[in-house]
Amino acid sequence: MQENQTPQIQVPQTTIKPKKKFSKKIIFIVIGILLALIAVFFAVKYLILGKSSILSSNELVWWGMWEDESSVSSLISEYQAKNPKVKIKYVRQSKEDYRERLTNALAKGTGPDIFRFHNSWVPMFKSELDKMPATVYSASEFSQIFYPVATSDLTVGPSIVGIPLEYDGLSLYINEDIFTKSGKNPPTTWNELRQLARELTIKDQNGIITQAGVALGRTENVDHWPEILALMMLQNGADLARPTGKLAEDALQFFTTFSLIDGVWDATLPASTVSFAAGKSAMYFGPSWRAFEIRLQNPNLKFKTVPVPQLPKTTANEADVSYGSYWVEGVWARSKKRDVAWDFLKFISSKESLEKFYNQASKTRLFGEPYSRTDMESLLINHPIIGSTVKQGKVAQTWFLQSNTWDGPTGINSQINKYFKDAVNAVNTGMEPEKALEPVSSGVIQVLSQYGIKIQ
After folding, report:
1. Fold of the CATH domain 171-323+409-450
2. Residue 74, class by beta-carbon neighbours within 10 Å (0-12 exposed, 13-18 middle, 19+ buried)?
């Protein structure tokens, strides 16, 4: 090596390869791991913190009708205490135009999360009613807990679409002073009722009724005539969807007999509730809530209720038939808080909640809502007014002949009532029941078809 030369370092030549890109497979694996970790996190959070974290940041709007806020506020507070991030706003609705108001709100997408509806309204609202999850009540549990009529009314396909917080239906009101004075006992059959009505009717020298035996036979001044007529027809075995033939004709004829033949009631008298409250009628048919009006009109009237009369039994296994008319809580199918809404309804329909509900309402009126649960019947069975209501719950049937549901001129009850009303009025003016019922059958089928109800 020469002295002035700079030694050169020999660098071995290597081929520099470009860096490899992460494969798509690795990326998907990493994302999958992250998603799994997130799922585990929320699962642990649910187990540790409970349902309240899942039911968070939810404000429910509940449309009610008959109860003021004070009757439900304590139960709402109790539920909110268990679910701190859930808020429930109760809005009491007026009965006037309620069905139309509810229909419009749902159509606009501004409907309440929970709303009250009549048991006969299911065909009108079935597309807006959410199906109850089996985790709330299974179909078997529901049928065991609530009266059979509720299962029948609230089943759409394989699902239940509402939970009743109360039950009501027809009972026979008795003026206790009149019965005590005459030494009579309440009737148990229609034949007994007819005989008693004639005996307890008093007329003056001009033939004017001064004390009616019973308010029956007409439509213009007999409150709840649709339910009474439907009851008679159902007990007689008539098909209300096709009200033709001897069974329907006989029931219609019997209903009008009290005015047309027996003369124990007529068109000159005031409305039946008013007449009974004034002490001018010995017997009167109505649901339990009419007792509030009667007591308000006449605080001194002594009255009680008994189960509705039945037809004489021809066989030992024939069951009694009563007639139900009650209100239900439903969940809007398009609500974003359906799970929370159902969870609240399960809470408020428990035995403990319903008893608190009843007791709170009883502080401001004669009594609270009659219980909708069969396992609570014994708590009210001896009550002088609603004892008969719950006693008849297990044998109740119902149909679209209902008064005081305020479903509007296009409602299913309003339309069907009109056909039967025309038939009653026609018989009272001399038409034969067979001929009077002819337009009813075709009219009823037309109304039912509007709401997708097929007649087999």
Report:
1. D-Maltodextrin-Binding Protein; domain 2 (3.40.190)
2. middle
Q: Is 231 helix (H, G, I), strand (E, B) or coil?
A: helix
CA distances, 335 to each of 60, 130, 444 (Å): 9, 9, 33
Q: Tell me which of 1.10.1200.10, 3.90.1110.10, 3.40.50.1980, 3.40.190.10 is the CATH number of domain 53-168+325-387.
A: 3.40.190.10
By CB neighbour count within 10 A (0-12 exposed, 13-18 middle, 19+ buried), where does 417 fall? buried
Predicted TM-score (pTM) of this structure: 0.86
Write down the domain spans for the chain: 53-168+325-387, 171-323+409-450
- Percent pLDDT > 70 in the chain is 86
101: which residues sit within 8 A by CB, 6+ positions away? 93
- For residue range 121-158, list pLDDT tens digits in order: 999 999 999 999 999 999 999 999 999 999 999 999 99
Residue with tokens 């009813």: 440
DSSP letters, 28-83, are: HHHHHHHHHHHHHHHHHHHHHH-HHHHT-SEEEEEEESSS-HHHHHHHHHHHHHHS
pLDDT tens digits, one per residue of 255-283? 999 999 999 999 999 999 999 999 999 99
Residue with tokens 């009149």: 178
Query: Would you say 444 and 419 are in contact if contact means Cβ atoms under 8 Å apart?
Result: yes
